[in-house]
Write a structure and sequence with these properties.
Length: 424
């Protein structure tokens, strides 16, 4: 069978008021590991084609044209809620007899997606049951699988028709101006775990169980990426350092194999000296962490399960061991004050954070924050549910705060960006 797996175009995606345009002007192209993992699991006698419409900035029209040109027997779409409009258009317009959807969107909106024209949906993990479905009659329905031992899954292949690994090597020119400046850098992303056991109120990571690859598997994959020409690796986990023992074992394995390369990871702003030492000696040069706030009350409300003190210890250790900090801050928690926002740049400077990023608190679908806004009457209806049932282009959820406050938050974010990135 001819099988095409796609990510969705950005065209018509929901508008949010969370991210200042400064950060989106120079997007990083991340390898679509979700569809590659599914493609890896499909029996090789199928003819597989990958189309990463998201990373290449394809329009909906052009994506539909490419699908219809290839004329697959099965179209597999990886969907996130913010792109439900593009998904609905493609489901309607792609001339394919079997259209299926997986990805975070269908974990919550499987029935709604079937009603929009999907023949089958795959909740949670599709790595195993999509292939089973292909080989057992492709029946209509909602499928669900959750793979606890992800170490049992095959190594993700990165060579498929229509897939150019070279395009995902992030060199100095095509990434954030202020980050990763070295021209000689060839950076690829990988996952070493899935999910995050924490429950921050605004976070839409739905997988609450931390599932991980063994340290040997992690370093096997690193070696593979190095053999593909990368000299830098970014671990794109939801929370890489959930378990310090595992982090230390990954570092030991890198050193045992004598691998010399620089790498970075996404995780939590929590660190002890032993782990910091292990990270530094194994080549970790940067950690991307959600610090979110430097106000104890806000951190508590966010359910971050970190404190201002532990954040301080994290920053001190990173600075001592030469690990750069990329820190994400969220502005606009209900109890946050103007006074705090005024002081924030100084507090960040004191912590010697080199790359702070500023977002505005946003009620993503299926987050505790969004549910709270419905429960306390700020939202009179379930906007995300209505959007999932009938996606419209450029959907914008109503502001959960006054326009004046929103304006002040946006100005604060701009002021902070100017201070840290434009020498202002
Ligand atoms: S630690 Fe990060 S990934 Fe985990 S729930 Fe909080 S924001 Fe989400």
């Amino acid at each position: 069978m001819k099988v095409m797996l796609i990510t969705l175009p950005k065209e018509g995606q929901t508008k949010d008021f969370t991210t200042p345009s400064f950060y989106s002007s120079n997007p990083v192209r991340y390898i679509p590991l979700g569809i590659l993992a599914v493609a890896t699991s499909i029996s090789p006698d199928h003819d597989i084609r990958i189309l990463d419409a998201d990373s290449y900035g394809l329009s909906i029209d052009y994506t539909v044209r490419r699908i219809n040109e290839f004329a697959p027997d099965v179209l597999g779409i990886s969907a996130v809620t913010r792109k439900a409009f593009a998904m609905s258009k493609i489901l309607k317009r792609a001339n394919v007899s079997l259209k299926v959807v997986g990805g975070p969107h269908v974990t919550h909106y499987a029935k709604e997606t079937i009603n929009l024209g999907a023949d089958a949906t795959f909740k949670h993990d599709s790595d195993r049951n999509f292939n089973e479905w292909l080989n057992t009659g492709c029946k209509r329905g909602i499928y669900e699988d959750y793979i606890r031992n992800i170490d049992s899954l095959p190594f993700i292949r990165r060579e498929f028709s229509g897939f150019e690994l070279e395009d995902y090597m992030l060199s100095g020119e095509d990434t954030q101006k202020t980050l990763f400046k070295q021209k000689s850098l060839r950076r690829l992303a990988m996952m070493s775990s899935k999910g995050c056991p924490f429950r921050c109120v605004f976070c839409d990571v739905q997988d609450k169980e931390f599932r991980f690859l063994s340290p040997q598997r992690v370093v096997d994959e690193m070696e593979h990426l190095l053999s593909c020409g990368a000299n830098s690796i970014h671990i794109l986990d939801d929370c890489f350092n959930t378990d310090s023992n595992r982090v230390i074992k990954v570092c030991e394995e890198i050193k045992k194999r004598g691998l010399k390369f620089q790498w970075s990871c996404r995780g939590r702003a929590v660190l002890d000296r032993t782990t910091a030492e292990a990270l530094q000696s194994a080549g970790c040069v940067r950690m991307h962490v959600g610090i979110e706030s430097l106000n104890p009350e806000v951190l508590k409300w966010m359910n971050k399960r970190i404190t201002v003190e532990t954040t301080g210890e994290f920053c001190d250790l990173c600075n001592e061991y030469g690990i750069e900090i990329v820190a994400y801050f969220v502005l606009g928690a209900p109890m946050e004050t103007r006074e705090y926002r005024e002081k924030l740049p100084d507090m960040i400077r004191e912590l010697k954070i080199k790359y702070p990023f500023f977002n505005i608190l946003y009620p993503s679908a299926n987050t505790k924050y969004y549910r709270e806004l419905m429960a306390n009457g700020t939202y009179k209806m379930d906007y995300w549910q209505a959007f999932a049932e009938k996606p419209v282009p450029n959907f914008e959820i109503p502001l959960p705060r006054s326009e004046e406050l929103q304006d002040e938050l946006e100005k604060t974010a701009e002021r902070c960006i100017k201070i840290f990135f434009n020498g202002g």
